[in-house]
Specification:
The strands form seven sheets. Strands 1, 2, 3, 4 and 5 form a five-stranded antiparallel beta sheet that branches. Strands 10-11-12-13-17 form a five-stranded mixed beta sheet, with no helix packed on it. Strands 6-7-8-9 form a four-stranded antiparallel beta sheet, with no helix packed on it. By secondary structure, it is mainly β. The protein is about 0% helix and about 45% strand. A hairpin with a 2-residue loop joins β18 and β19 (about 230).
Length: about 325
């Protein structure tokens, strides 16, 4: 407890058991051996712009070889409200604030829909979630424009090039891996299967969870702004659109989806269940694919504003609350 607007919970997967918790205004804290350490792991409050509610330090991913190279990557809004993807280097419980290498800067036309996720895939590439640029209704139609980096899942190779290279099999010859997203708020890879899960925040009526099985080629079109969930927005369903695994309506008690993780911890009854939630209602659902059919069930009414989920080294699941707490799923 006692955190300042936590928005991401990550593990370095380095055997230390530590959790790294982002505080939105520009700080990463360390939770180690049951204690929230006073000294920040990283403090970049001086370069993070959190003037608007959806802005700030938003995402964190540790390099797969973090134990050897100390590299980690952050997704934040900085000068001008624009998106910055940067690499830092750390040793122990303190990162070198002066080690920032800005890999990518993306201009943001409005203060909302910044996305913010960062995650390494099983292929070793860095995946980034960026929203459509904001306002409402995707006024610049970035979601369907494969030349724009907004409204996309990006995929870059941070192990080659300067400061990175574009993987040879990216579908459009640029950073874009998948498109047609409004505001992907949290992406994750199932550590067992490699499947990609995306929580995409809806416009006015429908929230959705998108799913891309491991081994899928790039170029998936998740539909925005042609579609909002399974429903026409600027158009109607058409061949080639990958519609959601599940959707829920604002009328059923939600306002903004928070994507989660597939449980891979020590409780076998939860194994393989994808947990996701809603920011406003505090509802947490479980989603599974059973006999070729998606099944989603409301599991908890958490009574918290759920900003993010997290997963530790052992596969246990956490969520962060805007009110300042981080919670873990345990047996009674």
């Amino acid at each position: 407890s006692g955190l300042n607007r936590p928005v991401d919970v990550q593990s370095a997967l380095d055997g230390s058991g530590r959790l790294f918790i982002i505080e939105k205004y520009g700080v990463i804290r360390v939770y180690e051996n049951g204690q929230l350490l006073e000294q920040p792991f990283l403090n970049i409050d001086d370069r993070v712009n959190d003037d608007s509610n959806e802005m700030g330090l938003l995402g964190l991913a540790f390099h797969p070889d973090y134990e050897q190279n100390g590299f980690f990557y952050v997704n934040y809004t900085g000068a001008g409200g624009n998106t910055f993807i940067s690499r830092f280097q750390a040793s122990g419980n303190v990162a070198d604030v002066g080690s920032e290498s800005i890999l990518l800067k993306v201009n943001q036309p409005y203060p909302n829909h910044n996305g913010g996720a960062a995650a390494f895939g099983p292929d070793g590439y860095l995946y980034l979630g960026l929203g459509d640029g904001g306002a409402g209704g995707d006024p610049h139609k970035n979601g369907q424009d494969t030349a724009s980096l907004l409204g996309k899942i990006l995929r870059i190779d941070v192990n080659s090039g300067d400061p990175y290279s574009i993987p040879f099999d990216n579908p459009f010859g640029n950073e874009v891996w998948a498109y047609g997203l409004r505001n992907p708020w949290r992406i994750s890879f199932d550590r067992s299967t490699g499947d990609l899960w995306i929580g995409d925040v809806g416009q006015g009526d429908w929230e959705e969870i998108d799913y891309l099985p491991a081994g899928s080629p790039g170029g998936a079109n998740f539909g925005w702004s042609i579609m909002e969930g399974n429903h026409g927005y600027d158009g109607q369903a058409q061949p080639g659109l990958l519609l959601p695994a599940v959707e829920y309506s604002h009328s059923s008690g939600g306002c903004s989806v928070t994507g989660g993780y597939v449980y891979r911890g020590a409780m076998p009854e939860w194994n393989g269940i994808y947990l996701y939630g809603d920011y406003c209602s505090g509802y947490v659902w479980g989603l599974i694919l059973s006999d070729g059919q998606w099944q989603s069930q409301l599991l908890f009414e958490a009574g918290e504003t759920i900003t993010s989920f997290g997963q530790d080294e052992s596969g246990e699941i956490y969520f962060a609350s805007d009110a300042g707490g981080v919670y873990v799923l345990t047996k009674k």
